[in-house]
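Hi all, posting the design record for the shared folder.

TITLE: backbone redesign
STEP: 1 of 1
STRUCTURE INPUT:
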C-alpha cells in the first residue's frame, strides 16, 4: 500500500472491524450500495468525493462509506465500470446502461423482474430501439438513477 491517505482510512476502518490488522480487517468488508452525489463530500481518507461506496462489515455489522478510489485501492473491491455507467446515465437518462449498471441494479432490486434484466443486458450495445423499447429502457433507467443519484448529500 502506498502512503496516499492510507493512514486516515486505516484509522477509520480499524475501530469498526474485528481484526486490528488492516490487511485482515479489509477482508471483513463488502460493498452494499453506491451513490453519486451532486455535492462534494469527504472520504474518511480525506479526499473530496462525489462517488460514495457504502460498505458493511460482515462480522461486526458496522457500516460506513468510502470513496471510489479507496474501495479499490485499499479495501480491494473493484467497482469496475459501474461509476462510469452511472455518470453516463445521470448525464443522459436516455442512454443505454452498461452491463455493470444492469448487474448492480439487478443485484439491488431496482429492476422488476428477469425479463427487464434480460432486456437491459440485450440492449447494452444496441443502437436502434423501437419506441416501446426506448420507453421501457427510460423507465428502468429512472428507477436506477432514483436509487443511486442524490442531489443533496445526507450522512448515513
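Okay, here is what came back for every position:
SEQUENCE:
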Amino acid at each position: 500500500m502506498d502512503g496516499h491517505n492510507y493512514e486516515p482510512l486505516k484509522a477509520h476502518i480499524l475501530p469498526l472491524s474485528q481484526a486490528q490488522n488492516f490487511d485482515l480487517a479489509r477482508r471483513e468488508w463488502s460493498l452494499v450500495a453506491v451513490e453519486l452525489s451532486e455535492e462534494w463530500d469527504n472520504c474518511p481518507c480525506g479526499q473530496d468525493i462525489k462517488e460514495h461506496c457504502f460498505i458493511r462489515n460482515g462480522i461486526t455489522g458496522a457500516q460506513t462509506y468510502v470513496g471510489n478510489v479507496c474501495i479499490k485501492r485499499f479495501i480491494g473491491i473493484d467497482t469496475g465500470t459501474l461509476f462510469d455507467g452511472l455518470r453516463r446515465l445521470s448525464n443522459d437518462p436516455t442512454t443505454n446502461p452498461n452491463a455493470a449498471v444492469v448487474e448492480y441494479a439487478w443485484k439491488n432490486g431496482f429492476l422488476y423482474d428477469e425479463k427487464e434484466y434480460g432486456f437491459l443486458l440485450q440492449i447494452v450495445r444496441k443502437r436502434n430501439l423501437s419506441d416501446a423499447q426506448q420507453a421501457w429502457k427510460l423507465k428502468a433507467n429512472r428507477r436506477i438513477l432514483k436509487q443511486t443519484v442524490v442531489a443533496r448529500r445526507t450522512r448515513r
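COMMENT: Residues 65 and 155 are 9 Å apart (CA to CA).
Let me know if anyone wants the other runs.
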